[in-house]
Protein backbone atom coordinates (compact mmCIF):
# COMPACT_ATOMS: atom_id res chain seq x y z
CA UNK A 1 0.00 0.00 0.00
CA UNK A 2 2.72 2.43 1.00
CA UNK A 3 4.69 1.73 -2.17
CA UNK A 4 1.64 2.46 -4.31
CA UNK A 5 0.95 5.69 -2.42
CA UNK A 6 4.57 6.89 -2.56
CA UNK A 7 4.72 6.10 -6.28
CA UNK A 8 1.60 8.18 -6.91
CA UNK A 9 2.93 11.10 -4.82
CA UNK A 10 6.24 10.89 -6.70
CA UNK A 11 4.41 10.85 -10.02
CA UNK A 12 2.40 13.94 -8.98
CA UNK A 13 5.56 15.81 -7.97
CA UNK A 14 7.17 14.98 -11.33
CA UNK A 15 4.06 16.29 -13.09
CA UNK A 16 4.23 19.53 -11.10
CA UNK A 17 7.93 20.02 -11.84
CA UNK A 18 7.28 19.47 -15.56
CA UNK A 19 4.93 22.45 -15.47
CA UNK A 20 7.35 25.21 -14.39
CA UNK A 21 4.94 28.03 -15.19
CA UNK A 22 2.32 26.79 -12.73
CA UNK A 23 4.99 26.02 -10.16
CA UNK A 24 6.48 29.52 -10.47
CA UNK A 25 3.01 31.05 -10.28
CA UNK A 26 2.35 29.10 -7.10
CA UNK A 27 5.24 30.81 -5.30
CA UNK A 28 5.14 34.21 -7.05
CA UNK A 29 1.42 34.81 -6.53
CA UNK A 30 1.57 34.89 -2.69
CA UNK A 31 4.35 37.50 -2.77
CA UNK A 32 2.46 39.56 -5.34
CA UNK A 33 -0.73 39.41 -3.27
CA UNK A 34 1.28 40.33 -0.19
CA UNK A 35 2.68 43.45 -1.87
CA UNK A 36 -0.68 44.52 -3.30
CA UNK A 37 -2.69 43.98 -0.14
CA UNK A 38 0.04 44.99 2.28
CA UNK A 39 0.73 48.34 0.61
CA UNK A 40 -2.46 49.16 -1.31
CA UNK A 41 -5.25 47.71 0.84
CA UNK A 42 -4.80 50.02 3.79
CA UNK A 43 -6.95 52.46 5.70
CA UNK A 44 -3.93 54.41 6.94
CA UNK A 45 -4.70 57.60 4.99
CA UNK A 46 -1.87 60.14 4.96
CA UNK A 47 -0.86 63.23 3.00
CA UNK A 48 -4.37 64.49 2.28
CA UNK A 49 -4.18 67.52 0.03
CA UNK A 50 -5.12 70.66 1.96
CA UNK A 51 -5.78 74.02 0.34
CA UNK A 52 -5.59 77.12 2.57
CA UNK A 53 -7.63 80.32 2.46
CA UNK A 54 -6.15 82.61 5.12
CA UNK A 55 -8.12 85.87 5.25
CA UNK A 56 -6.42 87.01 8.46
CA UNK A 57 -2.70 86.68 7.60
CA UNK A 58 -1.71 86.94 11.27
CA UNK A 59 0.83 85.01 13.34
CA UNK A 60 -2.08 83.18 15.02
CA UNK A 61 -3.56 82.05 11.70
CA UNK A 62 -0.18 80.91 10.41
CA UNK A 63 0.34 78.99 13.64
CA UNK A 64 -2.98 77.19 13.15
CA UNK A 65 -2.11 76.27 9.55
CA UNK A 66 1.26 74.95 10.67
CA UNK A 67 -0.44 72.80 13.31
CA UNK A 68 -2.37 71.04 10.54
CA UNK A 69 0.65 70.68 8.27
CA UNK A 70 2.85 69.31 11.06
CA UNK A 71 0.57 66.28 11.28
CA UNK A 72 1.08 63.42 8.84
CA UNK A 73 -2.52 63.64 7.72
CA UNK A 74 -2.31 66.81 5.61
CA UNK A 75 0.03 68.35 3.07
CA UNK A 76 -0.24 71.80 1.56
CA UNK A 77 -1.75 71.71 -1.93
CA UNK A 78 -1.97 75.44 -2.45
CA UNK A 79 -3.14 78.83 -1.20
CA UNK A 80 -6.32 80.47 -2.50
CA UNK A 81 -8.00 83.83 -1.95
CA UNK A 82 -11.66 83.05 -2.58
CA UNK A 83 -14.16 80.33 -1.72
CA UNK A 84 -14.85 79.81 -5.42
CA UNK A 85 -11.20 79.02 -6.05
CA UNK A 86 -11.12 76.70 -3.01
CA UNK A 87 -14.17 74.81 -4.32
CA UNK A 88 -12.56 74.56 -7.75
CA UNK A 89 -9.42 72.96 -6.24
CA UNK A 90 -11.57 70.33 -4.55
CA UNK A 91 -13.67 69.79 -7.69
CA UNK A 92 -10.62 69.05 -9.87
CA UNK A 93 -9.09 66.74 -7.21
CA UNK A 94 -5.97 68.84 -6.59
CA UNK A 95 -7.07 68.97 -2.95
CA UNK A 96 -9.33 66.86 -0.73
CA UNK A 97 -9.81 69.42 2.03
CA UNK A 98 -9.75 73.16 2.55
CA UNK A 99 -9.46 75.44 5.57
CA UNK A 100 -10.94 78.94 5.68
CA UNK A 101 -9.62 81.31 8.36
CA UNK A 102 -11.84 84.42 8.63
CA UNK A 103 -10.60 88.01 9.02
CA UNK A 104 -9.98 89.02 12.63
CA UNK A 105 -9.09 85.49 13.72
CA UNK A 106 -5.91 86.63 15.48
CA UNK A 107 -7.66 89.51 17.29
CA UNK A 108 -10.44 87.20 18.46
CA UNK A 109 -7.90 84.74 19.88
CA UNK A 110 -5.97 87.56 21.56
CA UNK A 111 -9.17 88.85 23.17
CA UNK A 112 -9.77 85.46 24.77
CA UNK A 113 -12.87 84.78 22.71
CA UNK A 114 -13.80 81.77 20.57
CA UNK A 115 -12.81 82.06 16.91
CA UNK A 116 -14.61 80.01 14.27
CA UNK A 117 -12.73 78.30 11.45
CA UNK A 118 -14.32 76.52 8.47
CA UNK A 119 -12.98 73.18 7.30
CA UNK A 120 -14.27 71.94 3.93
CA UNK A 121 -14.03 68.23 3.00
CA UNK A 122 -14.47 66.24 -0.20
CA UNK A 123 -16.91 63.46 0.74
CA UNK A 124 -16.77 61.59 -2.56
CA UNK A 125 -14.32 59.12 -0.97
CA UNK A 126 -15.77 58.21 2.45
CA UNK A 127 -12.54 56.59 3.68
CA UNK A 128 -10.43 59.69 3.05
CA UNK A 129 -13.19 62.02 4.20
CA UNK A 130 -13.74 60.23 7.52
CA UNK A 131 -10.01 60.21 8.25
CA UNK A 132 -9.69 63.90 7.33
CA UNK A 133 -12.73 64.79 9.44
CA UNK A 134 -11.42 63.00 12.51
CA UNK A 135 -7.94 64.50 12.04
CA UNK A 136 -9.33 68.00 11.52
CA UNK A 137 -11.35 67.84 14.74
CA UNK A 138 -8.54 66.33 16.82
CA UNK A 139 -5.86 68.72 15.58
CA UNK A 140 -8.20 71.68 16.11
CA UNK A 141 -9.00 70.56 19.65
CA UNK A 142 -5.33 70.00 20.47
CA UNK A 143 -4.42 73.46 19.16
CA UNK A 144 -7.29 75.05 21.10
CA UNK A 145 -6.16 73.30 24.29
CA UNK A 146 -2.63 74.58 23.74
CA UNK A 147 -3.88 78.17 23.28
CA UNK A 148 -6.03 77.92 26.40
CA UNK A 149 -3.10 76.55 28.41
CA UNK A 150 -0.84 79.41 27.30
CA UNK A 151 -3.57 81.95 28.08
CA UNK A 152 -4.11 80.57 31.59
CA UNK A 153 -0.39 80.47 32.33
CA UNK A 154 -0.04 84.14 31.37
CA UNK A 155 -2.74 84.97 33.91
CA UNK A 156 -0.99 82.91 36.61
CA UNK A 157 -3.89 80.47 36.92
CA UNK A 158 -2.12 77.30 35.83
CA UNK A 159 -3.67 75.25 38.66
CA UNK A 160 -7.14 75.99 37.28
CA UNK A 161 -6.18 74.30 34.03
CA UNK A 162 -6.64 70.85 35.56
CA UNK A 163 -9.37 68.99 33.68
CA UNK A 164 -12.12 67.18 35.65
CA UNK A 165 -11.68 63.99 33.57
CA UNK A 166 -8.42 62.55 32.31
CA UNK A 167 -9.06 59.74 29.81
CA UNK A 168 -5.90 57.78 29.07
CA UNK A 169 -6.15 55.29 26.24
CA UNK A 170 -4.13 52.16 25.58
CA UNK A 171 -4.24 50.24 22.31
CA UNK A 172 -3.37 46.56 22.66
CA UNK A 173 -1.70 44.28 20.08
CA UNK A 174 -1.41 46.94 17.35
CA UNK A 175 -0.58 50.27 19.05
CA UNK A 176 0.23 52.01 15.76
CA UNK A 177 -3.03 50.81 14.17
CA UNK A 178 -1.06 49.61 11.14
CA UNK A 179 -3.36 48.06 8.53
CA UNK A 180 -0.67 45.63 7.33
CA UNK A 181 -0.61 43.99 10.75
CA UNK A 182 -4.31 43.25 10.33
CA UNK A 183 -4.17 42.28 6.66
CA UNK A 184 -1.17 39.96 6.43
CA UNK A 185 -2.35 37.32 8.96
CA UNK A 186 -5.60 37.16 7.01
CA UNK A 187 -3.67 36.80 3.77
CA UNK A 188 -2.39 33.41 4.96
CA UNK A 189 -5.93 32.04 4.98
CA UNK A 190 -6.80 33.62 1.65
CA UNK A 191 -3.72 32.17 -0.05
CA UNK A 192 -4.29 28.73 1.45
CA UNK A 193 -7.87 28.73 0.22
CA UNK A 194 -7.16 30.07 -3.25
CA UNK A 195 -4.11 28.00 -4.13
CA UNK A 196 -5.16 24.74 -2.48
CA UNK A 197 -8.65 24.84 -4.01
CA UNK A 198 -7.52 25.84 -7.49
CA UNK A 199 -4.53 23.50 -7.71
CA UNK A 200 -6.48 20.51 -6.41
CA UNK A 201 -9.45 21.07 -8.70
CA UNK A 202 -7.38 21.68 -11.84
CA UNK A 203 -4.92 18.83 -11.24
CA UNK A 204 -7.64 16.17 -11.06
CA UNK A 205 -9.58 17.67 -13.97
CA UNK A 206 -6.34 17.75 -15.96
CA UNK A 207 -6.01 13.99 -15.48
CA UNK A 208 -9.54 13.59 -16.80
CA UNK A 209 -8.87 15.84 -19.81
CA UNK A 210 -5.74 13.93 -20.76
CA UNK A 211 -7.39 10.55 -20.27
CA UNK A 212 -4.84 9.47 -17.65
CA UNK A 213 -7.45 9.21 -14.90
CA UNK A 214 -8.64 5.95 -16.49
CA UNK A 215 -5.11 4.60 -16.28
CA UNK A 216 -5.03 5.38 -12.57
CA UNK A 217 -8.42 3.72 -12.05
CA UNK A 218 -7.28 0.39 -13.49
CA UNK A 219 -4.26 0.31 -11.17
CA UNK A 220 -4.48 -1.42 -7.75
CA UNK A 221 -4.85 2.02 -6.16
CA UNK A 222 -7.83 2.39 -3.88
CA UNK A 223 -9.96 5.55 -4.15
CA UNK A 224 -8.67 6.97 -0.86
CA UNK A 225 -5.08 6.27 -1.91
CA UNK A 226 -5.70 8.15 -5.14
CA UNK A 227 -7.13 11.11 -3.22
CA UNK A 228 -4.26 11.19 -0.71
CA UNK A 229 -1.62 10.77 -3.40
CA UNK A 230 -3.05 13.57 -5.51
CA UNK A 231 -3.50 15.99 -2.58
CA UNK A 232 -0.25 15.47 -0.67
CA UNK A 233 2.01 17.54 -3.00
CA UNK A 234 -0.40 20.47 -2.86
CA UNK A 235 -0.53 20.28 0.93
CA UNK A 236 3.25 20.67 1.02
CA UNK A 237 3.18 23.51 -1.52
CA UNK A 238 0.47 25.31 0.47
CA UNK A 239 2.50 25.06 3.68
CA UNK A 240 5.56 26.42 1.88
CA UNK A 241 3.44 29.33 0.65
CA UNK A 242 2.29 29.93 4.23
CA UNK A 243 5.87 30.11 5.49
CA UNK A 244 6.74 32.36 2.54
CA UNK A 245 3.98 34.84 3.44
CA UNK A 246 4.94 34.79 7.13
CA UNK A 247 8.61 35.41 6.34
CA UNK A 248 7.78 38.22 3.90
CA UNK A 249 5.36 39.78 6.39
CA UNK A 250 7.97 39.82 9.13
CA UNK A 251 10.82 41.05 6.91
CA UNK A 252 8.94 43.59 4.78
CA UNK A 253 6.16 44.83 7.06
CA UNK A 254 7.66 44.05 10.48
CA UNK A 255 4.56 42.10 11.48
CA UNK A 256 5.18 40.68 14.97
CA UNK A 257 4.41 37.00 15.56
CA UNK A 258 3.36 37.01 19.20
CA UNK A 259 1.93 33.50 19.38
CA UNK A 260 2.98 29.90 18.86
CA UNK A 261 4.07 29.33 15.25
CA UNK A 262 3.65 25.54 15.55
CA UNK A 263 0.05 25.99 16.69
CA UNK A 264 -0.58 28.30 13.74
CA UNK A 265 0.77 25.69 11.28
CA UNK A 266 -1.27 22.89 12.86
CA UNK A 267 -4.49 24.88 12.66
CA UNK A 268 -3.56 25.95 9.13
CA UNK A 269 -3.44 22.25 8.29
CA UNK A 270 -6.95 21.85 9.69
CA UNK A 271 -8.19 24.70 7.53
CA UNK A 272 -6.29 23.23 4.59
CA UNK A 273 -8.30 20.00 4.82
CA UNK A 274 -11.44 22.05 4.23
CA UNK A 275 -10.03 23.90 1.23
CA UNK A 276 -8.70 20.68 -0.29
CA UNK A 277 -12.13 19.14 0.14
CA UNK A 278 -13.69 22.07 -1.71
CA UNK A 279 -11.16 21.64 -4.52
CA UNK A 280 -11.88 17.92 -4.68
CA UNK A 281 -15.60 18.63 -4.80
CA UNK A 282 -15.11 21.10 -7.66
CA UNK A 283 -13.09 18.50 -9.58
CA UNK A 284 -16.12 16.17 -9.57
CA UNK A 285 -18.32 18.91 -11.02
CA UNK A 286 -16.04 20.52 -13.62
CA UNK A 287 -15.19 18.83 -16.91
CA UNK A 288 -12.39 21.16 -18.04
CA UNK A 289 -9.61 23.09 -16.31
CA UNK A 290 -11.16 26.39 -17.36
CA UNK A 291 -14.48 25.38 -15.83
CA UNK A 292 -12.67 24.30 -12.65
CA UNK A 293 -10.92 27.69 -12.37
CA UNK A 294 -14.18 29.61 -12.91
CA UNK A 295 -15.94 27.50 -10.30
CA UNK A 296 -13.08 28.11 -7.88
CA UNK A 297 -13.36 31.86 -8.39
CA UNK A 298 -17.11 31.61 -7.86
CA UNK A 299 -16.59 29.99 -4.46
CA UNK A 300 -13.76 32.29 -3.39
CA UNK A 301 -15.35 35.67 -4.16
CA UNK A 302 -18.08 35.41 -1.47
CA UNK A 303 -15.51 34.38 1.13
CA UNK A 304 -13.41 37.50 0.46
CA UNK A 305 -16.29 39.81 1.29
CA UNK A 306 -18.16 37.79 3.93
CA UNK A 307 -15.31 36.42 6.04
CA UNK A 308 -14.02 39.67 7.54
CA UNK A 309 -11.03 39.67 5.20
CA UNK A 310 -11.65 43.18 3.88
CA UNK A 311 -14.72 44.49 5.67
CA UNK A 312 -15.62 44.08 9.37
CA UNK A 313 -18.47 41.67 10.01
CA UNK A 314 -19.92 43.99 12.65
CA UNK A 315 -20.68 46.56 9.93
CA UNK A 316 -22.73 44.10 7.85
CA UNK A 317 -26.50 43.52 7.97
CA UNK A 318 -27.71 40.71 10.21
CA UNK A 319 -28.65 38.39 7.34
CA UNK A 320 -25.15 38.67 5.83
CA UNK A 321 -23.55 37.96 9.21
CA UNK A 322 -25.65 34.81 9.47
CA UNK A 323 -24.41 33.67 6.04
CA UNK A 324 -20.82 34.30 7.11
CA UNK A 325 -21.08 31.52 9.70
CA UNK A 326 -21.13 29.05 6.79
CA UNK A 327 -17.73 30.29 5.52
CA UNK A 328 -14.69 28.43 6.96
CA UNK A 329 -12.35 31.34 6.25
CA UNK A 330 -14.23 33.42 8.82
CA UNK A 331 -13.01 31.14 11.61
CA UNK A 332 -9.47 30.83 10.32
CA UNK A 333 -9.07 34.61 10.16
CA UNK A 334 -9.91 34.82 13.85
CA UNK A 335 -7.35 32.07 14.52
CA UNK A 336 -4.52 33.58 12.46
CA UNK A 337 -5.03 37.12 13.75
CA UNK A 338 -5.42 35.85 17.30
CA UNK A 339 -2.19 33.83 17.26
CA UNK A 340 -0.03 36.31 15.30
CA UNK A 341 -1.23 39.61 16.75
CA UNK A 342 -2.68 38.76 20.16
CA UNK A 343 -0.47 35.79 20.97
CA UNK A 344 -3.44 33.78 22.26
CA UNK A 345 -3.35 30.01 22.69
CA UNK A 346 -5.69 27.14 21.99
CA UNK A 347 -7.78 27.89 25.07
CA UNK A 348 -9.01 31.14 23.47
CA UNK A 349 -9.73 29.58 20.07
CA UNK A 350 -11.71 26.45 20.93
CA UNK A 351 -14.92 27.68 19.28
CA UNK A 352 -13.20 28.43 15.97
CA UNK A 353 -11.20 25.17 16.05
CA UNK A 354 -14.34 23.07 16.60
CA UNK A 355 -16.13 24.91 13.77
CA UNK A 356 -13.21 24.25 11.41
CA UNK A 357 -13.11 20.59 12.47
CA UNK A 358 -16.79 20.19 11.64
CA UNK A 359 -16.29 21.87 8.25
CA UNK A 360 -13.23 19.72 7.49
CA UNK A 361 -15.02 16.44 8.26
CA UNK A 362 -18.22 17.41 6.42
CA UNK A 363 -16.58 18.84 3.29
CA UNK A 364 -13.92 16.16 2.93
CA UNK A 365 -16.46 13.35 3.48
CA UNK A 366 -18.84 14.77 0.88
CA UNK A 367 -16.00 15.35 -1.59
CA UNK A 368 -14.57 11.84 -1.12
CA UNK A 369 -17.96 10.17 -1.59
CA UNK A 370 -18.68 12.14 -4.74
CA UNK A 371 -15.15 11.56 -6.04
CA UNK A 372 -15.52 7.82 -5.48
CA UNK A 373 -18.81 7.82 -7.41
CA UNK A 374 -17.23 9.74 -10.28
CA UNK A 375 -14.49 7.09 -10.46
CA UNK A 376 -17.08 4.35 -10.55
Describe the model.
The protein is mostly helical and 376 residues long. It has two domains: 2-41 and 178-375, no CATH class; 48-161, abc type-2 transporter like domain (abc type-2 transporter like fold, 3-Layer(aba) Sandwich). It is built from 14 helices and four strands. The chain has helices at 2-17, 20-40, 59-70, 83-91, 105-110, 126-154, 179-210, 212-217, 223-253, 261-285, 289-306, 318-324, 328-342, 350-375, and strands at 48-54, 74-79, 97-101, 118-121. A four-stranded mixed beta sheet has the order 2-1-3-4, sandwiched between helices. Strand 1 (48-54), helix 3 (59-70) and strand 2 form a beta-alpha-beta unit. Helix 7 (179-210) packs antiparallel against helix 9 (223-253), helix 7 runs parallel beside helix 10 (261-285) and helix 13 (328-342) crosses helix 14. The protein is elongated, with a radius of gyration of 29 Å. 32% of the residues are buried.
What's the overall average pLDDT, rounded? 81
Largest sheet: 4 strands, mixed
Judged by helices, strands and strand pairing, the structural class is mainly alpha
Shape: elongated
What is the chains' assembly state? single chain
Number of strands: 4
User: Stretches where pLDDT falls below 50 for ≥5 residues?
Assistant: none
